[in-house]
Design a protein that fits this description.
By secondary structure, the chain is an all-alpha fold. 78% of the residues lie in helices and 0% in strands. It contains 6 helices and no strands. It has helices spanning 9-21, 25-38, 40-53, 58-70, 74-87, 90-104. Helix 2 (25-38) packs across helix 4 (58-70), helix 3 runs antiparallel to helix 4 and helix 5 (74-87) runs antiparallel to helix 6 (90-104). The radius of gyration is 13 Å and the shape is globular.
């Protein structure tokens, strides 16, 4: 989808989600960053709205945490990742731990 609509924030986020699903953290961060660059306000509004609508959805929380990481926002990223871990399946934990480590290294 990102190849078909490279200037679509949604396409970049969907591409990033697919990359996260296969464990490609670097590529996913790049895709989320590109999506954010297209429309920063809308990117935040979309992910925050989805997370508010489904506050126990660890995947949506993870996506919002990735946006916080891309924006360099350490504390919000860590708080959101803690919330995601509280409801995550065992299969999701490895990626969430990797993201927590990455967020913890932010200034």
């Amino acid at each position: 989808s990102a190849r078909l609509a490279p200037r679509s924030m949604e396409s970049q986020f969907l591409h990033g989600r697919a990359q996260l699903a296969v464990g490609d953290l670097e590529a996913a961060l790049s895709s989320f960053s590109l999506g954010r660059e297209i429309d920063p306000r809308r990117a935040r509004s979309l992910l925050e709205g989805l997370a508010r609508a489904r506050p126990r959805d660890s995947t949506l929380l993870r996506d919002l945490a990735v946006l916080e990481i891309v924006e360099g926002r350490r504390e919000p990223a860590l708080a959101i990742l803690r919330a995601a871990m509280a409801t995550a399946s065992p299969e999701q934990m490895t990626l969430l731990v990797r993201l927590t480590s990455l967020a913890g290294r932010l200034p």
